[in-house]
Amino acid sequence: MTALPAPFTFSQSSLQNYFDCPRRFELRYIEKLNWPAVEAEPVAENERRMADGNFFHRLVQQYLLGLPADKLSRLASAPEASPDLLRWWDNFQQNFRSLTDFGSLHPEAVLSAPIGNHRLLAKFDLIAVRDGRATIYDWKTYHKRPKDEWMAVRMQTKVYRHLLAKAGSHLNGGKPFAPEAIQMTYWYADYPSEPAAFRYDAAQFKRDESALETLIAEIESSTSFPLTGDEGKCRYCAYRSYCKRGARAGDWHDAEAEAEAHETFDINFEQIAEIAF
Description:
Blueprint: E1 9-10, H1 12-20, H2 22-30, H3 43-64, H4 69-76, H5 83-95, E2 104-107, E3 110-115, E4 118-123, E5 126-130, E6 133-140, H6 148-152, H7 155-167, E7 182-188, E8 191-199, H8 202-221, E9 273-274
Parallel strand pairs: 1-4, 3-9, 6-7
Antiparallel strand pairs: 2-5, 3-4, 5-6, 7-8
Helix pairs in contact: 1-2, 1-7, 3-4, 3-5, 7-8
């Protein structure tokens, strides 16, 4: 068995993969196995939806960086653009009419901090800072709105708030954000009036830190990575045929979040704000 590299850069995505299925984590991050199975059916529709989601994120990023909204709107309404993309962009424009509403903007911010013998890293859609308080915004283009209880326990919610409290002081004049000053908001492009907001506090910060350290120590010391007992998750896994857990992918309408695009980082690590080892 190939050992976990040390130090290893953990993200919310890799931790969620381990939480969902240790074997998936091993195949993807340790053995680095490429397996051609599609993650959701129908393939063309799933790929189009993911491409539209990526394009929407890019439009919002450019808008937050100061590009004129009318020029971006022309891209969203181009003949080759999908109705989904135009609807999401229109919803965003209607809900976030002025950049001054956000405070100080930090789109596509990347934060990193050591955790045990490894590193924890996250790339944020937007961190907005005003008067010592910070709101993490994450744009979601899900077909169905997830339940708040489901989002509350996702690794993304834990990792993003924890990292901002631990490694975000440079966004606050050199002073760490108090956990109570942090909120994470998921904004759903198809449900613009139904965002999910999760506040933070010192007690939750300590629980998250303990849980993340324990989980990473478990991964580090693991000598076996068993398959998940929840075979429903295998329907949206690229390794399902490799693991003999079925050949056909599940419908993306039923579990779109499970088939969400995996994080990819094209990052110069020397430029990441982090806490030194």
